[in-house]
Each structure stands twice: as C-alpha cells, then as structure tokens.
Amino acid sequence: MAAMANEFDFFSRRCVWVNGPIIVGAGPSGLAVAACLKEHGVPSVILERADCIASLWQKRTYDRLKLHLPKQFCQLPKFPFPEDFPEYPSKKQFIEYLESYAKRFEVSPLFNQAVQSARYDETCGLWRVRTVGTGADAGNRSHEVEYIGRWLVAATGENAEKVVPELDGLRDFGGDVTHVCDYKSGEAFRGKRVLVVGCGNSGMEISLDLCDHNAFPAMVVRDSVHVLPREVLGKSVFELAVLLMNWLPLWLVDKIMLVLAWLTLGNVEKYGLRRPSMGPLELKNTQGRTPVLDVGALAKVRSGDIKVVPGIKRFFPAKVELVDGQVLDVDSVIFATGYRSNVPQWLQGCDFFSKDGYPETPFPNGWKGDCGLYAVGFTRRGLAGASADAVRTAEDIAKIWKEELRPAKRSFACHRRCISQI
Ligand SMILES: Cc1cc2nc3c(=O)[nH]c(=O)nc-3n(C[C@H](O)[C@H](O)[C@H](O)COP(=O)(O)OP(=O)(O)OC[C@H]3O[C@@H](n4cnc5c(N)ncnc54)[C@H](O)[C@@H]3O)c2cc1C
Ligand SMILES: NC(=O)c1ccc[n+]([C@@H]2O[C@H](COP(=O)([O-])OP(=O)(O)OC[C@H]3O[C@@H](n4cnc5c(N)ncnc54)[C@H](OP(=O)(O)O)[C@@H]3O)[C@@H](O)[C@H]2O)c1
C-alpha cells in the first residue's frame, strides 16, 4: 500500500501511519473521493467494514432493484456509465460500474476493517482511527489497528444501519420478521400474507415484488406520502424538476410536479395514499423525506392486490391490530422502515455531526468540518450529491497537500511526533 509510510506493533494493536486522507466507507462516496484524490496525485486509504466495495448494493438490496433516477444523475466523477447501459441501470449493472470505477482509478480499500472510533488528537494535530477486524478476523484482538493521519473523510452513508421500530407485541408475533435490507425476492413469500411496514420507495417496490410472486401484501401507510410518476411522456420527472429549478422557485416546481402527478396517476388519496401538505421537493429539502417514484406498485394498489392499511397498534401471535381497530391475519412482517447514519457511533469529541448522524451545517456547506474533517454523501441528494461532495473534498485536500505539505518531510515529522505521543 503506497499510502502507508510506516507501521509498527504496539502491544496487540498495530498503529499505521496514513500518508494522505483516511476515508471511512467504500461505498460510492468513498470510492469517488479516493478516485478524485488520486487524480490530484494524493494517496488515501479506505477502511471498509464489509469484504467488498459498495456493500449496501451488493449485500443489502433486493434483486429487482434498478436506479430510479436516469443514469446521468447517478454516475461518479470522471467516469461516465457505459453508453450501452440502459437509462435506469439494474443493481447488477451499477455494481459492475462501481467495480470498473475502482479498477480504473486503482482504488483498493482495506476490507473487514470496521471503524470503532475516530477522534482528533490535538496534541499531535492528527486523526486517530481505530478499527476492529470483521468477517474471519472478528473478535481477534490482534486485528485491532489504529490508523493515524492528517485528514478524515466520513463516507459511511445515510443508510449505514437499518431502522426497526419497537412495536408492542412483536416478540409474541411468532412469524418471520425481517428488514427490507435482508429481502432478496418474493419467492420465499409465495402464498403468504405479508405485512410490509413502510411506504417509501423500498416498501412500495417490495410490495409490488410480493404481488409478482403471488404473495398477499398489506402495506402500512401510517401517515402521508408523495407518490410521483417516474416518467411523464417518456421524460424523467426528476430530470424535469432539475431543469425547472433553474428557472422557477421551488414552490412552483412542486406545484407543477403535483399537477403532473395528478394528470398521470389520478387521485391517489382515495387509495389511502394521502399527500403531505408540503410539496415533494420542499419536503425532501427540509425533512429529507424522499418522494416515491412509482415503478408499478400504484397499479397494484388500484387493483387491490396491494392492500393499503393504516398504522400498527400492536401485534398478537400471527395477527396485527391496526390503529383503526382492524385485525389482520399475517404470516410474515417485513420492515421497510428506512435506515440511519452511524457516524455518532464512531466519530468522537466532535460536534460537526448532529445526533442524527448528519452534518449540523446545512447544505451546501456541510461537507467540510474543522481540523481536516470532511463529510461525503450526507446531503440527502443521492449519488449526485455524493459526487459533488467528493469533487469538492478532493480539491480542498489537494490544495493543502500541494501548497502546504512536503509529503516526504511532513509524513516523517508527523509520524515521529505521533509515535512519541502513543
Ligand atoms: C435500496 C436503495 C436504493 C437506492 N437507489 C438510489 C438511486 O437510484 N439513486 C441515488 O442517487 N441514490 C440511491 N440510493 C441512495 C444511496 O444512499 C446511494 O445510492 C449510495 O449508496 C450512497 O453511497 P455512500 O457511499 O454514501 O453510502 P453506502 O453505499 O451506504 O456506503 C457506505 C459504506 O460504508 C461502510 N461503513 C459503514 N460504517 C462503517 C464503519 N463503521 N467502518 C467501516 N465501514 C463502514 C458500509 O459498509 C458501506 O460499504 C439508494 C439507497 C437504497 C437503500
Ligand atoms: N429504486 C430505487 O432507486 C430505490 C428503491 C428503494 C429505496 N431507495 C432509496 O433508499 C432510501 C431508503 O428508502 P426506504 O424506502 O428504505 O426508507 P424511507 O424512505 O426512509 O421510508 C421509510 C418508510 O417507513 C415508514 N415508517 C417508519 N417507521 C414506521 C413505523 N413505526 N410504522 C409505520 N411506518 C413506518 C416511513 O413512514 P413516515 O414517512 O411516516 O415516517 C416511510 O414510509 C431512500 O433514499 C430511497 O429513495 C431507492
């Protein structure tokens, strides 16, 4: 590894000096920032808890998943999607693209390295990042490592951990209970009555997938939701919104989106899909709630194949009681209740990130903290947002790297200073 200038054993924990930024997470954000740094001639090290790149896409998504935005909004910096890829690449194609991306920029993350803590050491002016081994290395204390470096890039994503609500009686339910991150296809649910909790993009699409596998989904919609068509007259609604936002205020673009939705989808409220009072783009910007882009679930809602039900009151063995008093017989429960960032679990002594795991400073200034800390992929703007963060972060670090640092001298000096502190 070119980026490592030195390493030594300190009792059971190895300490490794990183000559360049330490990036946590080898998803699209981590890969993009490492690639952009490489283009500037800055080495880096990526620490990844899983045994592969893009573990969210490879291990925690369902089989039928496709990008729901056109490919030009999902490509990473400096490397477009292949021309023969469709407008909405499949999950398999997206993973292939990410593999080629890592290969093209010679990005080789360190796998099975789960970051437990990262803190800035003011004494030596460096970040100290501790990892434990995962996979085959799990529990082996000799695989605990401390990485030390001048910059830290948080790229662990907005979907690092699943969210599973605590609901009364769930322990007594007795049937299968899973989260959508473990769902692959409806095959395993053929003929079953499945309660899908949540009506985001995941809840809607797996309800559709369950129908396609002859299961009987009931989808819990506890509140309101914006459903938009993915396309209008063959044109991506997202692309249209981006275009209109160049000319019109957000509230007006929201109104146009809702008129288009009404013209294309009709009145969805009569099926139990009440719209929020705030428009879809404003809701996304202010509360991070993503509108659902319909890929076919709505037709199944209309036909009654997907039953829309209100919030859950409590579970009983093989049953669920809803807030309106209905009791349903249920074989399986799938939580499509979203994800959360895990930054507060590992980033210590730093108030740049709030308790919910997102930067305190609002967009567009939340990518850079103090003391060489950066956040890539926390703007709730999908892959396009992550790419923009990666470009800015790499430029900023490269500027300091080129102007202020003499890599060989600096790394040696820091390393010696640091070792003497340990
Ligand atoms: C089902 C689904 C579909 C989506 N579809 C789209 C889409 O079509 N278009 C779009 O723009 N966005 C989409 N998104 C949003 C998604 O967040 C991005 O596509 C993208 O994966 C974000 O990349 P990331 O690198 O920031 O985060 P991630 O892809 O989540 O990668 C973060 C990496 O960090 C690692 N990690 C986490 N914690 C630690 C730790 N403590 N130590 C070491 N490593 C750690 C994880 O293992 C993971 O590999 C989708 C999300 C989901 C869940
Ligand atoms: N094709 C694609 O590209 C694709 C597919 C799937 C997902 N995604 C993306 O992946 C990210 C995560 O999506 P997601 O759908 O998994 O999560 P999400 O957007 O966070 O949606 C979670 C859903 O669960 C509901 N919920 C949470 N707690 C609940 C409870 N106790 N009872 C009932 N409902 C509850 C929420 O309702 P409230 O709104 O009331 O809180 C919401 O409907 C999003 O960015 C999404 O766009 C993309």
TrEMBL record:
PANTHER family listed in its UniProt record: FLAVIN-BINDING MONOOXYGENASE-LIKE PROTEIN (AFU_ORTHOLOGUE AFUA_4G09220), INDOLE-3-PYRUVATE MONOOXYGENASE YUCCA8-RELATED
* Protein known as: Flavin-containing monooxygenase
Similarity comment text for this entry: Belongs to the FMO family.
Q: Which reaction does it catalyse?
A: indole-3-pyruvate + NADPH + O2 + H(+) = (indol-3-yl)acetate + CO2 + NADP(+) + H2O
Q: Which InterPro entries match?
A: Auxin_biosynth/cation_transpt, FAD/NAD-bd_sf, Flavin_mOase-like
Q: Which cofactor does it need?
A: FAD
Database matches in Gene3D superfamilies: FAD/NAD(P)-binding domain (3.50.50.60)
